[in-house]
User: What shape does this take?
Amino acid sequence: MTRETCRMITLPKIADPRGNLTFIEGGNHIPFQMSRAYWIYDVPGGETRGGHAYRTGQELIVAVSGSFEVEVSDGSVTTRYALNRSYYGLYVPAMQWRELVNFSTNSLCYVLASGEYDESDYIRDYGSFQKLAQEG
Ligand code: TYD
Assistant: This one.
């Protein structure tokens, strides 16, 4: 089975002297239909968020304001992505362990998700994730 990989997606940017505009169409700019949006904000200095994987959920993570980094592991290789532009999105497919770190002051992390919130889709223990990831 071929797994989707994590990648940065450059979103459309309508440059305008009155202020720039960026948009996303599910299934067009990102490889899934979104059914939920959530955002993370007011993160105190030094805090981390995330630290879990989804069995089936896919996400696009955008630093709408400020910056932060996303550490993504497929169970063997870990890659760190810097998010610092409103027109970049990090696509994270299912079965990737991801952790959000190094939030700048007043940063805003906006996430589009493929499904409704479902705790049973979460894998919250890294050891269990690694075992499942290796089983493929
Ligand atoms: P969670 O995804 O576990 O964030 P983190 O890994 O950074 O701690 O979400 C934290 C809590 O918020 C969790 O207990 C459930 C709730 N939550 C919802 O109710 N709906 C949502 O869409 C999300 C993302 C979280």
Observations:
- The chain has one domain: 7-135.
- Residues 36, 38, 49-52, 117 surround thymidine-5'-diphosphate (CB under 6 Å).
